[in-house]
């Protein structure tokens, strides 16, 4: 059965980016270290297995416009080709944004994106339609993940916890409020502790 899964990397002190996020530093200054488990080569066999398991079940992605624009920058596309961070293509991406026309011209393969301006629930519903019986993975940024959790739209939360303290940046869970989780799986690698939780919707 299809699930909605929030999947994001986070530093030990709760940040998904470092300080100084701007057009040139989509993950902040030095923020790519938070995502080293997937960006740096060679990956450990554990990290490769975590990625492979996620790709196998992913039918569509829910994303934020800023995160998509950052991943679409030429240098990021080149790095993704080198490290194979995800297969090309996923079936589609629903992008939550305020002004779709400002996001669209900067995106490679723009026909694979649906731009949604009516809120996170609509974005996830459209992603479900794309995914069919596969999973919808909400992957960024922090605000979209937080909105999805706060609206009780997420079935499963995956945190890739980096052994890193960044001190400041974009914090996760600022919008969420009290949420009960059931720990289901913990997998360790040299660059991350991969945590999987069921989200209790009561």
Describe this structure in words.
Strand 4, helix 5 (about 100-105) and strand 5 (about 115) form a beta-alpha-beta unit. The chain has helices at about 35-40, 45-55, 65-70, 75-85, 100-105, 120-130, 140-150, and strands spanning about 5-10, 15-20, 60-65, 95, 115, 135-140, 155-160, 170, 180-190, 195-200. It has an 8-stranded mixed β-sheet. A two-stranded antiparallel sheet has the order 2-8. The protein is an alpha/beta fold.
Could you give a short account of the major beta sheet?
Answer: 8 strands, mixed
- Quaternary structure of the protein: single chain
Portion in strands: 25-35%
- The number of E-state strands comes to 10
Number of helices: 7
Write out key terms for the chains shown.
single chain, 202 residues, alpha/beta, 8-stranded mixed β-sheet, 10 strands, globular
């Amino acid at each position: 059965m299809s699930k909605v899964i929030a999947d994001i990397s986070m530093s030990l002190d709760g940040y998904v980016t470092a300080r100084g996020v701007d057009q040139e530093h989509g993950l902040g200054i030095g923020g790519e270290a938070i995502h080293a488990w997937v960006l740096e080569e060679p990956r450990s066999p554990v990290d490769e297995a975590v990625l492979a398991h996620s790709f196998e079940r992913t039918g569509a992605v829910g994303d934020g416009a800023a995160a998509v624009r950052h991943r679409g920058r030429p240098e990021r596309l080149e790095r993704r080709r080198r490290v194979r961070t995800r297969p090309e293509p996923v079936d589609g991406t629903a992008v939550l944004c305020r002004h779709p026309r400002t996001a669209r011209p900067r995106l490679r393969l723009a026909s694979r994106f649906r731009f949604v301006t009516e809120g996170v629930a609509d974005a996830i519903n459209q992603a479900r339609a794309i995914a069919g019986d596969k999973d919808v993975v909400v992957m960024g940024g922090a605000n979209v993940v937080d909105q999805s959790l706060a609206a009780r739209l997420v079935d499963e939360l995956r945190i890739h916890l980096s052994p890193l303290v960044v001190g400041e940046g974009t914090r996760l869970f600022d919008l969420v409020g009290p949420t009960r989780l059931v720990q289901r799986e913990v997998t360790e690698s040299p660059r991350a502790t991969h945590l999987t939780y069921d989200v209790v919707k009561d």
